[in-house]
Amino acid sequence: GAVVSQHPSWVICKSGTSVKIECRSLDFQATTMFWYRQFPKQSLMLMATSNEGSKATYEQGVEKDKFLINHASLTLSTLTVTSAHPEDSSFYICSARSGARGTEAFFGQGTRLTVV
Amino acid sequence: QKEVEQDPGPLSVPEGAIVSLNCTYSNSAFQYFMWYRQYSRKGPELLMYTYSSGNKEDGRFTAQVDKSSKYISLFIRDSQPSDSATYLCAMQGNTPLVFGKGTRLSVIA
Known about the structure:
heterodimer; A: mainly beta; B: 0% helix; 55% strand
């Protein structure tokens, strides 16, 4: 399957600082990338969908000013958690899709964010 | 009723057993059905991908989709301790992927 690389795999930051997470598709061009959040023993919750060169579409309840998404190229999307607080601590996962809806979505390894 | 229902388990089986994992759904627009395996603190890994109804086999894994019953299954034959993970079903129509909660599976040697 296609490879999606996510970096960093884990990060600890102080409350009030910002953290950037990168998601790269290594061997295909990702027209669409998705950002998910996963709490312990819970399923993946979609935060936002981003198409290359367009503004991201955020799911209801997700603050777009807090979770900044940039999809500047067909192989890179970034999620920046701004002014992080302890309640933002979670497992963040990106996925990328190469073509039309219904094609397989491949996931990154995830980033465990801990805000202290 | 949630769009996708999946028993979270945990499910514990002896090595070599046949494992059956299931999801039900309510949205008849779903056409694409996936099963993902997720190890602890890792991203989901795509196991099986099926379009519409029918069966698909890949090694020890078989995915079944019954759209008339809105029911999908994943069977694991000759289960191994390395199969111990959380298995998530996911499906899609004209919306982004919708995931089940995941079933935690433990295969005991």
